[in-house]
């Protein structure tokens, strides 16, 4: 029964998205908009409920469901394991809230049915990535993800959006080509004849031992291939550009669903295909770790320099995604645990920050940071949420970000100590990584706190006080206020989760440690 | 030895690692001090803050910081310490930024930067330490660190050094003291009393944990801390002597007094390293910590009383304010005498203990020149302390303001319930200030009854070795050091401050700031360095940012260029198109396309070639025909015969 449920939770959103596209005509004429919203929200809720039943019912161990056979051993197969449940659970928790937010945000936009059709389809495709039972299935949904999200980036229909979506397409397709090399190579060295995910790796040790360097090269290629969606340097550029899309897209897809699919794919490929025992201590590990570290440094520095609020958050995402990749490249059980906890924590922190930025845009149409002077006093709830997410991104204790940073650093240090004990020349890298994480935390402090400080203490910024006062007395613009409940409910929920994880991470960490233990 | 342990509380799972709180002797004393300080400042705040808006915000962060500070002092593992330490840094930031003026903005910026950088560096130290030892429990790290193989000592030093940086930044240790002289004059006075009196002590708390728990008897570590302490105390006092602003002087004095405490901590390690009992150093450092909290509470609140009446802090503007105000004068005098180390006040006791510990170490280790110099730096700094406190006292209570003196005097003498004129301080504030000030001489007069017993409570926390022996504080041998300092102080005051740091004659004589403006560690080194590194890294990252796109662009300009189809496209003219396209790419900006010209050329050539071709083939054909005829003739001749 549960096996079938997996297919349902993937296909239901995709099919309803198609249905919505077909019904596009009648709805577009301005009628039935309310009905559409209720229908979409109900559908998303039902699907999330199904996902919850699935996760709770199987407890992270389902059977195999072969959907169909492409050719020979290439099957499209679903299977839910613990790591998949974490990602699926995360996605299904966030989607209904983000959809609620999207209704309010898109209130005045046209072409809504098209937007929500693709938005809902993305849900199914992301679930597909989470539930994929072998590399072929994951690759299939990974490619599909590119195509269903492309119209969402293109949605504003401006020249900038066209350019951004073209770049997104090129980068993603290019990345998938590299990933494809990995797929082919893995299939020919597989110990079981298929590409099924196996905790601890599935390469045939005898065969792989003979062609070690070739396999390592393929690993590096595939890492960068899947890493494109996780915005690894030098393939990061599409992400800041794609922030032209409407905020619900930037927040949910470009901070959680799409980019985390990339990171998730890298984790799968590293821990469930190659296996860490094959990779640990090789040159390939140091190369990919170096790439992750460069991205962290780069992303947070660029974020500190960026003046457009959403682009700044996008650069911050670039940097934070590489925290996850850094955890992946530590290649120990602890590293996987740390990567997963940061995946969860960052999802909540960043979607919260983006939704705050979106709320500001929606209420005041302000997009640049220097325009935010004094807004904190007028939109207190929004900016309080923003500040919490900023502090959490910095990794201040009491918030979720601290837990993940602590685990990442400790995992890296123990990896470094092991490598040093083995006399590995790359042993300095994890130590460097901890330093990089702290540097990035400092930069995070700069780029997140300056926004909060501007919003709450306008007089601390040159000319800020006059500007804030002038707005009040000028009376030209309508007074900005906090948005309505449809936006505030998601924001406050995220803040509660951030603080909840920060204060009591024990249950979550227990599950994640279990995953690390079985796959590392 | 561990003192009374009142509770020991472990909350597992809190913030990921669990939380461990403990209340024993040392922590009990500091909890009491925290309660006292917050109560007194709280009472004082009611009057001081009455004209401010945003009072709710002030009190919210006031009490949040209280909770976090007590949390730091109760913490029994470094992880818990770090959590509360960070919370405290952020809540106290709001104090500094409270006025929301330009200067407060800059000060708050510095404060936040130092706090955040310090916190991050400390976290790095914690990471390393945890990786090395597997625990952060204060009671266990010492034993585990002692068992480390020598090859890992380097990493232990690195971890401890990073933590010293983090805690030292909060304590105001050189060269990270920059935030103190900036932040204190900007924060509201009750807040600066707490910032200086007790928040800096949380940094000292951490340094004690690192020094006494991890290292204990390590010579190099003790030497490092002691030298940092000596530099800090000397520079702080030097800045204070030059300063002409009441609260800035007090802030610099805080830096200097923290230096005394650090020296005491360093001596505690050094004495153990030569196998001596370190009770003198431990008692001295602990008592000076406590004493300094009390002095600074009193002195900053006095400064607050001045500021809330005059809204000025420059010595020239406020001189003579204290005349005819006995409560203020009493409180300030007690604080000044205490901090100056005058016998019969409490500061004398703790300074004597630290001084004696230096002497004891010199005797035990066979004192070389360095430690003689250190002793004199110590005594000389004591002298500077006396001189700058004398300067403040004389300015406030002895000198007269050139033209506002009558106005100042009036503030002190208004009868209770008088005709609408306000007094300089209300009864509650005055009582709180006076009672707190009275504690100082009481402690100083009964050192054996009060101070020795308090100090004994801290022995367990400092991991003291050996037995405490009673010190005859008022024997001549011990008085000598104090008297030397006082003599130096009076000399410095008369010669340097009255002679060199004042200008003008008679009533127009005023204080001048002779400290060179450019000589400011923050503006000279830190800010430019930070800015330069930011600019450089940004440039670098901008370059990286365009690497991929640039690569693609280069490809499109060279090998993957999409050619515009030439208008004269002609599928027979392949060579001309290839060559012309290449030339077009080479000379992009030439007028007209090279392709067209080449096509024309090719057409001409082809035309000629075709002519040649036809004539040549015609000739060939004629030749062929001729050949055939010749062949036919030959055959005819051959067979026809």
Walk me through this protein's architecture:
The complex is a heterodimer of chains A (520) and B (641). By secondary structure, chain A is an all-alpha fold. Chain A has a domain at 290-520. In chain A, 76% of the residues lie in helices and 2% in strands. Chain A has helices at residues 2-22, 24-28, 33-58, 82-105, 112-131, 135-154, 159-189, 205-210, 212-227, 238-241, 247-274, 276-279, 283-305, 309-330, 333-364, 375-378, 380-394, 400-421, 428-456, 464-474, 485-503, 506-519, and strands at 65-71, 74-78. A two-stranded antiparallel sheet of chain A has the order 1-2. In chain A, strand 1 (65-71) and strand 2 form a beta hairpin. In chain A, helix 3 (33-58) packs antiparallel against helix 4 (82-105), helix 4 (82-105) runs parallel beside helix 15 and helix 15 (333-364) runs antiparallel to helix 18 (400-421). The two termini of chain A are 30 Å apart. The model of chain A is unreliable at 472-476 (pLDDT under 50). Chain B is mainly α and 641 residues long. Chain B has two domains: 7-412 and 424-514, no CATH class; 546-639, no CATH class. Chain B is built from 23 helices and four strands. In chain B, the strands form two sheets. In chain B, strands 1-2 form a two-stranded antiparallel ribbon. Chain B has a two-stranded antiparallel sheet with strand order 3-4. In chain B, strand 1 (7-11) and strand 2 (19-23) form a beta hairpin. The radius of gyration of chain B is 40 Å and the shape is elongated. The chains are: A mainly alpha (520), B mainly alpha (641).
